[in-house]
Predict the structure of THAP-type domain-containing protein.
Amino acid sequence: FLRIPMNPAKQREWHNALKNVECAFKKSTHVCSKHFREEDLDRTGATVRVREGVVPTIFQVCATQ
């Protein structure tokens, strides 16, 4: 899970990206790495990080019958 950015402008970008997802957006909100393209993540260190300027873009839509 990746923590939302601390920068208020970047938080707004993430919030806009997540606006169609039902979730409470708080300072402690984390987003699963599955919501990012693999090339958007930096896995070179012990901690997975989101590359600069990236917002979550992958959202599965559940179909109900």
